[in-house]
Amino acid sequence: MSTIPLAEAVTRAETALEKGRLEDARQLVEAVRRVAPEAVSTQRLWGGLLLRRGEFVAAEEILGRVVQVNPEDARAWALLAESRRTRGEREEARALLQVAWECAPWQRTYAQQLAEWFAEDGIEGQLFPSAACLSAWYFVQGWWARASEECRAALERLGERWDVRQRLCLALWWQGARREAAGEAERILSVHPEMIGALVVAALSARERGDEGEARRHRELLWELDPVGEVIERTVPMERWEERAWLALPEPIVVEEHWLVAPLGETELLWELPSEEELEAARPSGVAPLMEAA
């Protein structure tokens, strides 16, 4: 039985959800859940599917788990916002969508949707980048000192925000303030022991200290929660290829394709049928083709 990488199965499921092919999405999500049930990508897909099926309470419970493990998951925040909006909780929905925008300000769809919601609710004005928003921009650009400054400013104004706290922890690490970053990671994990960004810093810190046991524990938990490597892709700079390789799952998880084939007639075929010429070339010598019934 052929297999495909878990990352490809996740992408297929996301596409099916976006296009409203809920039965395809269900089969794909179930296939992914069989091999990586605790992964944040799996949980986000499952929550998104439940939301599309109108199971809002269950969806929000699962998506809440996602943002607890990775508080910078903009897609999960946006799905939570959509659920609250559908349930009529407009103010709460706007607040959640703003968090999504502040986690990924380069995604214009969040800002556009937020502006539309404000307009629909009769609230006039313009959107301006907040300190949290700027910290995400600076982080993705690799401007670690600026990102740290904006994170601190955001925390002073907003109080505790775990997405910003995690971003500060990571920015400090790449800025070179290793001891301070390790301290932030330790404080975060004492409250949220599965927060992925803090696990990245804690694992790298333990490795740097030569504590192989602690490094291994953090890394194995990271593999369980993010086998696709979404968080590593975003939080570890491209040029830090050695750290990326060390943090990545040694062997990619695969999904058996027989779990992905939907009943004929409901989705497109996953392969192309051979042409008449290809069939003729493949026919053993001396075997005549079957005649069509009259």
TrEMBL record:
It holds the Pfam family TPR_19. This is Tetratricopeptide repeat protein. It comes from Thermomicrobium roseum.
